[in-house]
Amino acid sequence: MVHPQILASIVIIGLIGNVCRAFPYPGLESFSHIGLDRQGQEIDYKDYPKYDFSYGVNDPHTGDIKNQHEERDGDFVKGSYSLHEADGTVRIVDYTADKFNGFNAKVYKSGVAKRPFGKSLYHH
């Protein structure tokens, strides 16, 4: 036989679940409502995608120095990013992407690689 306290706990949890379903949290909807606005009309998600953004990080304490720029116009995306490598060089990547040619990148390096100072790991 089930202990009365366990049975009471199960009943209370079930009742709480029914109350929560009756008063849904704003913004949470079931998947059956995706694509419909509040009046039952379908929402068109085929807006023309267009954006342009840039960002950069310059933290000399950690050596994290990088930049990125990207822009999109419809199905065409182009951008570039650069970052300072541990060897002192700078890697620069220019890229484009579209539905006909896919993703294409050109990678460049500038500067001269420097050997880090410190003890050698190999002893002969």
From TrEMBL:
What is any one of the record's Gene Ontology cellular component terms? extracellular space
Which Pfam families does this entry report, sorted A to Z?
Answer: Chitin_bind_4
Signal sequence: where? 1-22
What molecular function does GO assign, one term? Answer: structural constituent of cuticle
Alphabetical UniProt keywords: Cuticle, Signal
For this entry, the protein name equals: Uncharacterized protein
